[in-house]
Design a protein that fits this description.
binds zinc ion; single chain; about 20% strand; 5 strands; alpha+beta; binds guanosine-5'-monophosphate; 3 helices
Amino acid sequence: MAEEDCLFCKISAGKIPADIVHETEDVVAFRDINPQAPTHVLIIPRKHIATINDLTADDSVDVGKLFLVAAAIARNDGIAEDGYRVAMNCNQAAGQTVFHLHLHLLGGRQMKWPPG
Ligand code: 5GP
Ligand code: ZN
């Protein structure tokens, strides 16, 4: 998919509104439109990367930042100590529906394992 057609590129560029909770030069985080937990935030690189399968070594720093931002938001939302889950779906079998890399941050309720 071309970047101009990508939903999360549009959110990153401010062309589609979102409840943004964190924004830097490289990373944007916003609340999921259909939250599956009291805290459900999507953390994305500004760079368009479709799936985990498309990552290259050049993306390592950006991917690391996704986790640092997740931990910071978890602290801000008061869920860091109780615990939370981060998840990234890759392709159809995992249920990926938006093909711009995103880390889900889920918390504020008890998580089950294994996930469905
Ligand atoms: P995936 O299933 O690809 O791992 O996750 C995509 C997520 O994006 C879903 O949880 C879905 O609710 C969320 N989502 C889809 N469209 C929008 C939107 O327009 N705005 C926001 N904030 N979240 C969206
Ligand atoms: Zn994109």
